Amino acid sequence: MARFSLAQTVATAAERLTPTERRIAEAVLDDPTLVAFGTVTDLAIAVETSRPSIVRFATKLGFAGYTDLQDQVRRGLSLQLARPTERIRREHGQSFPFRSAIERSIASVFEAVGLGRLSELARPIASARTVSIASGESSRAGAHALLSGLSMVRAGVRLLEDQSIGRDLTDVGSGDVAVVFDFYRYRRSVVMAARILAECGVEVIAITDGPLSPLARLTGSWVDLYVPAIGPFDSSLPAVAMAELLVAEVAGQLHDVVTERIDRTEVLWAATQTFYEEDAPP
48: which DSSP letter? Predict the structure, then answer.
């Protein structure tokens, strides 16, 4: 598939653009992040035009709408902005709409799990013999949030670490589930582990960033999240939000079991004085 070029796309439609649309084109060619990280309103304000003009510009370029244009621009920027050092160089002295990027990333989580999809993803996690969790660097916060939450509501949950992955994969098989988090610049070890798990009959659930992800090609159970760059690094928020929704849904599906398990845990916490209390003996 040819790499998307915003400049080439604009050039192809240049003769059909109105003066306002040419002004929009000049702005986004000068700074594609206006489209990649901004809403229709953000771009309209930046170019001093209307929201309908922005939408018409997108359709004039051959896209289904602004979101379609935005997705293509983001993919085009992903290679340029993949490395933290390159992001630092590009962002130096510039202001970026981080709030809208974060809001869009959280919205993508709810879009990914709508229409009963969250229940479908959680069901095998709730019923599995064991649950293995693996992740890349930028998604590690999501993996740890899932580990922490799932360990509270069910047994047999573990995090796969690079140094012990060979040992941990020796006893997996049918009836087990793996939840694998990773986004662009996918870690080789994560993809390898997911592939081995799938070959062993483990049901793999991939939390990733699109159908071109190597994780999406390993399973039909995957979700597509938008992961923006916040400063030089990818945001952890969408992965964490996804993990928390999965834990909540699994807890709901295992309601009676979870209630008893958490009650027992509270008793043990009290017996071992796990939490600091002012009046508790030292």
Answer: T
pTM, to two decimals: 0.69
pLDDT digits (tens, 9 = 90+) for 4-27: 577 778 888 888 899 999 999 988
Q: Comparing C-alpha atoms, which of 153, 129, 133, 154 is closest to residue 144? A: 133
Beta bridge partners of 134: 180
Contact 28, 34 (CB under 8 A): yes
Q: From CA 248, how far away is CA 251, in angstroms rounded? A: 5
Q: Give the type of residue at 103.
A: E
Q: Which domains does the chain have, with CATH numbers?
A: 6-80 (1.10.10.10), 109-271 (3.40.50.10490)
Distance CA 276, CA 256 (A): 29
270 token code pair: 């009290």
Mean pLDDT of 164-185: 88
Which residues lie across from 233 on neighbouring strands?
230
Strand order in the sheet with 203-208: 157-159, 131-135, 177-181, 203-208, 222-224
* Encoded tokens for 265: 């845990």
Radius of gyration of the chain from its Cα atoms, rounded to whole angstroms: 22
Please give the single-letter amino acid code of residue 29.
Answer: L
Tell me 4's DSSP state: P
Give the amino acid at 26: E
Structure-derived torsion over alpha carbons of residues 109, 110, 115, 119, reported in degrees to the nearest 10: 70
Q: What are phi and psi of 5, to 5 degrees?
A: -125, 115
**Distance from C-alpha of 256 to C-alpha of 264, rounded to nearest angstrom:** 13
Q: What are phi and psi of 113, to 5 degrees?
A: -110, 15
**What would the pLDDT profile of 57-115 be if each residue is shown by its tens digit?**
999 999 999 998 988 887 766 654 555 555 555 555 555 667 888 888 899 899 999 98
